[in-house]
Amino acid sequence: MLAARGALRRGRLPAAGVGVGSVRLRGPPRLPPHVVDLRSDTVTRPCAAMRRAMARAAVGDDDYGEDPTVNELQCLAAGILGMEETLFVPTATMANLIAVMCHCQRRGAQLLLGRDSHLHVYEHGGAAQVAGVHSQALPDLPDGTFDLELLELTIREAHGSRYHPRPELLCLENTHNSAGGRALPLAYLQQVRGLADRYGLRVHMDGARLMNAAVAQNVEPARITQHCDSVSLCFSKGLGAPAGAVLAGRREFIAEAWRMRKMLGGGMRQAGVLAAMARVGLEHMGVTLRRDHDNARRFAEAVETNIVMVNISGSCSSPAELCEHLQAVSEEELAETGHAVSVLLFPWSAHAVRAVWHRNVSAHDTELAKNKLEFVARKCREKLALGLRPTPPNAEGA
Q1: Fewest C-beta atoms under 10 Å: which of 40, 46, 115, 281?
Q2: Radius of gyration, CA atoms only, the chain
Q3: Which residue has the higher pLDDT, 14 or 52?
Q4: Are 298 and 171 in contact (CB under 8 A)?
């Protein structure tokens, strides 16, 4: 069956075909289908307000600390995050790497993080390749947290041994991408902070979607970050800017982070044009992210933030084939539904696809995507009942 984490209300969905094909309609040429792009919240396009802010931005050489728009953004972000200072960097991946390098200055130091975390899986081993830091991955629970007893046992074993790497840093991810956008509970963060303090570890939060967590939990972001030594925040995901992130922490930490940014080639000079768009996203995050969360819940029940994981099991072949079904458009669909809709999802794992809501997806888009999923599910069941192998329209030579 096909089910979203958080109760997507449809049954079995067989799928077939190879890869993700182009959208094609049978018969004479028609208008292009309406595309609902749910692959990621990184696909957003700058809104009109961002483009105006970019055009008007006062700029200077940020490497000399002279870009006024960057400086304003850094001060605003520091206040929102409850940290002494922040540093504007090109990406959250760079922010996470800089945090590891600043917190773990002894080569061979140990970083504890989640097995399914973005930092561990999707950042190309930068902690090892660049920082010389050894990562130990712990199993993530379904809600994105760690088993705290296992975490403490792991730390204690290392502290009591001359042979183990010495753990120095613990990394959390909030919201947790692979857990379907779950926001880490505040009580859990407090427990992690207490455990880290007992053993002298520092805590970094990969907060690429931190603002989604704050909106979902209806708290100020500083209520979340108070349990961390440092935090990264991405502007090019739910906040809708085209690029940029900040790393936040104590003043001395950010001074060292500036040096690491310089070493990694992250000095962007007249970066105010990017900072201006990031600021617009930050200033409008409440309205934007609440709408994204509401739309995601229209698609699937019990979703916490803007991410829905659609699990595939039973007779479905693969996530890639499901994505091909949803992307393809047929004359049959147009005749039955009156709409030609192409839905783009991301094949996330061996048994799941991911859908992410963002500022460019409306409530109407959400209904179209939901109806397309229901149409695909029904057509696949009908073909299966006839003993046929369901294939997307373009795989049939449409």
Answers
A1: 115
A2: 23
A3: 52
A4: no
Q: Distance of CA 291 to CAs 33, 255, 323, 366, Å? A: 24, 37, 25, 11
Contact predicate 366/337, CB 8 Å: no
CA-closest candidate to residue 293, choices 215, 371, 365: 215
Query: 144 falls in which pLDDT band (50, 70, 90)?
Result: very high
HSE-up of residue 33 (Cα within 13 Å, Cβ side): 28
Mean pLDDT over 142-161 rounds to 94
Burial class, 72, CB count within 10 angstroms (exposed 0-12 / middle 13-18 / buried 19+): middle
Instruction: Give residue 312's identity as a one-letter amino acid code.
Output: I
**Residue 300 phi, psi dihedral angles, 5° rounding:** -150, 140
Give rounded-to-5 percent helix, strand, coil for the chain: 45, 15, 40
| CA–CA distance, 18 with 320 (Å, rounded to integer) | 7
Strands (E), 71-178: 85-89, 110-114, 134-138, 167-173
Q: How many residues does the chain have?
A: 398
**Cα torsion at 373, 375, 381, 384 (round to 10°)?**
-100
Within 10 A of 374 (CB to CB), how many other CB atoms are there?
14
Stated pTM of the model: 0.90
Q: Quote the CA–CA distance of 62 and 69 in Å, as a whole number.
A: 9
Instruction: Note the pLDDT tens digit of each residue in 291-337.
Output: 999 999 999 988 999 999 988 865 556 888 889 999 999 888 988 88
Burial class (CB in 10 A: 0-12, 13-18, 19+), 277: buried
At residue 338, the 3 state secondary structure works out as coil
Cα angle 263, 265, 269; round to 5: 120
Spatial distance between the Cα atoms of 131 and 93, rounded to a whole number of angstroms: 13
Q: Which residues lie across from 87 on neighbouring strands?
A: 247
pLDDT at 170: 98
What stretch of H or E contains 234?
strand 230-234
CA quadruple 163, 165, 168, 171: dihedral sign: negative
Residue 30 — very low, low, confident or very high, per pLDDT cuts 50/70/90?
low
